[in-house]
Amino acid sequence: MTVLTEGIAPHGGQLINRIATAAEKAEFLALAEKLPRVSLDERSLSDLVMIAIGGFSPLKGFMEQDDYEKVVDDMRLINGLPWAIPVTLSVSEEVADPLKEGNWIRLDDSAGNFVGVLELTQKYRYNKAHEAVNVYRTDDQKHPGVKVLYEQGEINLAGPIWLLQRDPHPQFPKYQIDPLQSRKMFHEKAWKTIVGFQTRNPIHRAHEYIQKCALEVVDGLFLHPLVGATKSDDVPADVRMRCYEIMMDKYFPQDRVILAINPSAMRYAGPREAIFHAIIRKNYGCTHFIVGRDHAGVGDYYGTYDAQYIFDEFEPGELGIVPMKFEHAFYCTRTSGMATTKTSPSLPEERIHLSGTKVRELLRKGELPPPEFSRPEVAAELIRAMRES
User: How far apart are CA 35 and CA 27, in angstroms?
Assistant: First the structure.
């Protein structure tokens, strides 16, 4: 089912809705004990949800082989529409063997709850090494995205899905704003231009600076931190959200900013994931998207600004969302303010950069990062969380 929407067109033209109606849910539940089961891990479950609510429009389900291969090789769906990350449901051969194409498959969460249905149209083998090199630019299994890829099953199950029901988020129900709702909110606020911001990290002064720079030229800011699966040493989602609540309360104009959660999982695919994240925010109704220095990067796998350069591989306007590219921001001691090399006359020694690693070291020692890096209330929250972990 597709839905009429306000504002910028979703990717592919229509916002997808694959949440079962009450009647459909009743039919599926009546078949519950007769259907073969597939258990979803955390990432697959979040993918199921994102497909169902339209966050992954125009996808209606997990990718068939033609789309999968086209995305891996060319960053496009088979119809030519830009798409950067494969969205697949991978299982072991043992699980896949008894499943018959054309049949319904019951999708369970890790606790065994019946959460969705897959109409199995295809099952196929795929080349993990080829996907790793093309999507992640490496086959090094120390890369967290590649590690997940190599640990998952050898067979992809494809076909349209239905989510049985949309439950409130267990941690952040008031920030659960799905694409249809965000679009309505933008319309009600009469925002014509909206910039989306993605992060998996706690907000710091450099984030704040580029967010507010962007807010100078658009009507509204959509703060959309990711709360799906991340790697184990990332700061937990509840801590990051409390930091954003502090910023909303004290440092942002609340009438021009909306805070909402992005329920999808991180891939750590750097440049390709920057495109993926932009498309997701387009589906939520954003017209612009902030792309920083090392968007969705990890370690040293991607070059400086590769996540910005990849947008130039598409024709102007083809993605349907405007990337706002920012250089690495720092605190400039000469001008006593946040800046980038585009705006600061300072020498390198007059610039305060703190890496995430350095900040985590300070926090573990109970030391506040300098105010040039983090708002003191945010730093205090991070220290409190670090002590409790």
Answer: 12
Are 156 and 126 within 8 A, CB to CB? yes
- Judge contact between 115 and 109, C-beta under 8 A: yes
pTM of the model: 0.95
Backbone φ and ψ of 16, nearest 5°: -80, 140
Active site residues: 200-201
DSSP state of 234: S
Per-residue pLDDT tens for 187-242?
A: 999 999 999 999 887 888 889 999 999 999 999 999 999 998 888 777 888 999 99
Nearest by Cα to 252 from 296, 289, 207 = 207
State yes or no: pLDDT of 360 exceeds 70: no
- Considering Cα of 79, then 82, then 87, then 92, what sign does the dihedral take? positive
d(CA 151, CA 298): 19
Q: Are 135 and 86 a contacting pair, CB within 8 Å?
A: yes
Cα 243 to Cα 241: distance, rounded to the nearest angstrom: 5
Would you place residue 328 in the very low, low, confident or very high pLDDT band (cuts 50, 70, 90)?
confident
Coil, strand or helix: which one is 341? coil
Q: What is the pLDDT of residue 388?
A: 76
By C-alpha distance, which of 149, 244, 138 is closest to 200? 244
pLDDT reported for residue 387: 78
Which tokens hold the place of 37? 């089961």
CA distance 189 to 174: 18
b/e code 321-343 from CB counts within 10 Å (16+ = b):
bbbbbbbebbbbeeeeebbbeee
On whether the CB atoms of residues 320 and 155 are closer than 8 A, the answer is: no
